[in-house]
Amino acid sequence: MIVALTGKPGIGKTTDVKRVIERIRDRAVGFYTEEIRHPETKMRLGFKVITTDGKEGILAEKFKPSKFKVGSYGVNVEEFESLVIPVLEEALKDKDKIIVIDEIGKMELFSEKFKRIVKELLNRKDLNAVITIPVKDVDPIVREIRERNDIVKMEITLSNRDEIPDKVLEMLS
What's the predicted TM-score (pTM) here? Predict the structure, then answer.
């Protein structure tokens, strides 16, 4: 079963994903993303990716030279792939794991290797996953996830965000 979480930016998708990871610990395999903020000004400088086995890398940085851009952020596709692709390839081999992908968004989808893995996951019926997707259909893959009947979609709101991890775990157990 695949559970897709969506909601407005800053609503708590990553927080809920991290709560799910904390509860299932060794069964979770994948990654989540976090903002990088300046320690004093609190201005957002970029985004990092963190794998469930604790490795970290830079996904995107403000004004970073890159041929892959989202607004003023240069996306570091190579670093993203070097961290995430091996983890996800292993995850696809283990039916006892719960795959975690936060998020299937514009920055991550610059990676063709990542797209290939997401498509494989979507076509597998023997795997469990928790994924997050943006509110907007930034790519045909996101639109497909939103339209598929075999994927459970949950919108995170201020009023339900504390209950979402329990609901996700209940569905996946």
Answer: 0.93
User: Phi and psi dihedrals of 103, rounded to 5?
Assistant: -145, 165
Question: Is the C-alpha dihedral spanning 157, 162, 27, 48 positive or negative?
Answer: positive
Choosing among 3.40.920.10, 3.40.50.150, 3.40.50.300, 3.90.360.10, the CATH entry for 2-33+81-172 is: 3.40.50.300
Query: Rounded to whole angstroms, how far apart are CA atoms 143 and 12?
Result: 21
Q: pLDDT tens digits, residue range 56-71?
A: 999 999 989 999 999 9
What's the chain's Rg over C-alpha atoms?
A: 15
Give me the count of residues in the chain: 173
Burial of 136 (0-12, 13-18, 19+ CB in 10 A): exposed
- What would the two tokens of residue 161 be? 């965000």
Does a cis peptide bond (omega within 30 degrees of 0) precede residue 144? no
